[in-house]
Amino acid sequence: SQELEQSPQSLIVQEGKNLTINCTSSKTLYGLYWYKQKYGEGLIFLMMLQKGGEEKSHEKITAKLDEKKQQSSLHITASQPSHAGIYLCGADDQYGNKLVFGAGTILRVKS
Amino acid sequence: DTAVSQTPKYLVTQMGNDKSIKCEQNLGHDTMYWYKQDSKKFLKIMFSYNNKELIINETVPNRFSPKSPDKAHLNLHINSLELGDSAVYFCASSPQGTYNSPLHFGNGTRLTVT
User: Fold this and answer.
1) pLDDT 10s digits, B50-76
2) What span, in angstroms and rounded, lies between the C-alpha atoms of B103 and A96?
3) pLDDT tens by residue, B39-50
4) Could you tell me which of B111, B106, B104, B105 has the C-alpha nearest to residue B88?
5) Cβ neighbours of B106 in A, within 8 Å
6) Which residues in chain B are contacts of A98 at CB distance < 8 A?
7) What's the pLDDT band for B1 if we cut at 50, 70, 90?
8) In the predicted model, what is the mean pLDDT of chain A?
9) Virtual torsion, Cα B109, B81, B17, B88, nearest 10 deg
10) DSSP β-ladder status, A10-14 and A105-110
11) What is the distance between the alpha carbons of residues A32 and B52, in angstroms, rounded to a whole number?
């Protein structure tokens, strides 16, 4: 079965600093999704990546997909306290029946 | 308007009890899911339904029984609750499976079994 490994597990950054979170799949990626979760809340969809080399941005968050490496990265520029939370990557299984998720990366931003 | 809503938000109960969690989506989606998030925040699929038909049953104990009365609702009933059932349960929906389509999640139900 497909597994997604996220790194780092947790991250503490000073406000204003940049950071990167990685997500590596054990199998071919058919679709890669990034979500953010705040404590006590549901998962908020951030971005979906489908093709190798694809890059998407939303405000100060950029996600890229490297199909050959079976890897995606999420980059936050000039982090703010509002960026704090748990970031999860999810991937389609080959049948499009479910999303498999990584274990998440806990991000804390110190002001 | 809430897209995917779950009730209750918190559920505290004793071992051996039976409880239900309800989920409703007003997005017109065909596929609904139940995911379980453990204490380490690991999110794992339990069930999925497409237009009331069970598609995925991911080796979940028989004590867990999903029911989909129509495609907008997917409820989860749990019999004989155990300590290990304590977790956050998320309902989600998507238009038609997950291919090229993100899941829309509810806010979760935090179940605590004492």
Assistant:
1) 988 999 888 889 999 999 999 999 999
2) 12
3) 888 899 999 999
4) B111
5) 42
6) 33, 45, 48, 56, 58, 98
7) low
8) 92
9) -10
10) parallel
11) 26
